[in-house]
Amino acid sequence: MTKPPSPVTSTSKAAARIRAAAVDAFATNGYGGTTTREIAARLDMSPAAMYPHYRSKEDLLFAISYDGHATTREVISAADLPGEPPTARLRSMIAAFARWQADHHAQARVVQYELTALTPEHYRDVVAIRREITQHFRQVVEAGAAAGEFTVPDAEGVTLALMSLCVDVCRWFPAGAYTDADAVASLYADLAMRLVGAD
């Protein structure tokens, strides 16, 4: 399990308020289009008041990104059903992943689409968690293929397709008839079964 880097450890209410305001600002205007002054203004505080919690805008983005990825990893791990067949495991994990992306679409959009703004060190820390999440899914896909439950020509490619499918939810949700996260979870679980060729 990856140890949380220091900027993520702040659990104070003030830090949580700052992260929430930053998520809203980054999701609306993009990381590059947002200043620390604008984030502070949303909270009726000065930029200097944010410094004890986050030394820079990039530190703030890192905290949001790390937290989002770490939470996603926990959600997926909790949704896994190790004692069940791979089909049940994958359905549950995909549903949980898609539901989280819908329920937290603003944070997820920042987490997924602002990665390149991180410093190389912070980028590596976050990508390490992404790899853990991907590997978890791949293990289940491979288990399903080995058990004859899935028909996949390429476990790695199918795993990447499954991940991409779920990650994209934050880009469009809510839209059209899909305004309920549970409906998205059910739809994506069904789509996942088609992607892996499950009966």
From TrEMBL:
Top-rank taxon, per record: Bacteria
SUPFAM superfamilies to which the protein is assigned, alphabetical: Homeodomain-like, Tetracyclin repressor-like, C-terminal domain
GO MF annotation terms: DNA-binding transcription factor activity; transcription cis-regulatory region binding
Cross-referenced InterPro entries: Homeodomain-like_sf, HTH-type_TetR-like_transc_reg, HTH_TetR, KstR2_TetR_C, Tet_transcr_reg_TetR-rel_C_sf
Keywords of the record: DNA-binding
PANTHER family per UniProt: HTH-TYPE TRANSCRIPTIONAL REGULATOR RUTR (PTHR30055), HTH-TYPE TRANSCRIPTIONAL REPRESSOR BDCR (PTHR30055:SF200)
Name by which UniProt lists this protein: DNA-binding transcriptional regulator, AcrR family
Protein species of origin: Rhodococcus triatomae
